[in-house]
Design a protein that fits this description.
about 325 residues, 10 helices, 7 strands
Length: about 325
């Protein structure tokens, strides 16, 4: 009897071990090419981790506004590829455009404070091509360039609205001309201390693509602020964009097997950025009260140092 029980137990353990084994996905497919996407990746947008910080646990917070400049080498993965027909990869701007076409809500810029205001109604589908994607390259004089295509003055907008079907469609013909100058994004972040986790956290709350605007005098704070207001295309609630970023790998950087999604890229803060403003009682941004490049740089370093030292100072005895 004991011998039979032992055999049954061994068979049950073997069956459990077989069921516990994972389905192995080969790095190469049946055609012999390396896999870019896997079955697990297609479900990634349903498994985004969201930490629920209780309001009673947050004892300190501070708003910070940053510019992500894609001309920095660390941000190249957000800029490339600049073609819209790449079979495997899309740059961040293309991901945003596809998300807007799919129904991602986007909001008007606040011309007075620049800050996002998600209490207002988002753009309607009919407003998006005309108001949100009104892109004009003002960095150079193109009056003598017969090949220059100002998309704001043509019918070939990046996004077209079909009033009959009430649908948005991406127009690839002007994408190459626009995306090469899409080199900056503005983010609104909140830095906060959670006493439950006993550490400082940083969360991106909103992101806005910026189109290029020429600044003739970088030391003129009024001109700098006006250009920043003018360059904002629209604001996006970052958490609404995350499911779309989780479904797209960033183009690899010197290692084809080390792939990260755009969502991972931002959550791990693999990008570099610089501060242009913070929450303050005067409702001012750094260029508002800094008259020169040197003064702006010093103020950026001061705010960055304060944020860096805050958590350390909490543990000093």
């Amino acid at each position: 009897m004991m011998k039979k029980l032992s055999i049954i137990a061994c068979l049950m353990l073997a069956a459990i071990a077989v069921q516990a084994q994972h389905n192995v996905t080969s790095f190469f497919d049946e055609m012999g090419t390396a896999r870019i996407r896997t079955e697990e990746f297609s479900r990634a947008h349903d498994t985004i981790v969201m930490i629920d910080h209780r309001i009673d646990d947050v004892i300190w917070s501070r708003y910070v506004y940053r510019i992500i400049d894609l001309r920095y080498r660390q941000n190249f993965q957000l800029y490339f590829p600049i073609k819209s027909d790449d079979a495997d990869y899309r740059n961040l701007f293309k991901v945003i455009i596809d998300a807007v076409v799919d129904g991602l809500p986007i909001y008007r810029k606040n011309t007075e404070t620049i800050k996002p205001d998600f209490k207002q109604e988002p753009f309607t589908k009919a407003q998006i091509p005309v108001d949100a994607f009104m892109i004009v390259d003002k960095t150079e004089d193109h009056s003598d360039d017969d090949d220059f295509w100002d998309v704001s003055k043509s019918n070939a907008m990046l996004v077209n609205y079909d009033s009959i079907s009430d649908q948005l469609r991406f127009n690839p013909f002007s994408f190459d001309d626009v995306v090469k100058n899409q080199i900056k994004y503005l983010t609104q972040e909140v830095v906060f201390f959670d006493k439950h986790t006993s550490r400082l956290h940083t969360k991106i709350m909103a992101i806005a693509p910026l189109h290029p605007v020429l600044i003739s005098n970088p030391d003129d704070s009024t001109q700098v602020m006006n250009s920043l207001r003018e360059s904002i295309m629209f604001w996006i609630p970052f958490d609404k964009l995350r499911p779309y970023m989780a479904m797209q790998y960033a183009i690899p950087n010197r290692n084809e097997t080390k792939r990260v999604t755009y969502d991972e890229f931002f959550q791990k803060r693999l990008f570099t950025s610089y501060i242009v403003g913070e929450g303050n009682m005067y409702n001012r941004w750094i260029p508002d009260y800094s008259g020169s490049h040197e003064e702006i740089k010093r103020e950026q370093e001061r705010i960055a140092t304060e944020l860096l030292n805050f958590e350390q100072d909490l543990w000093e005895y």
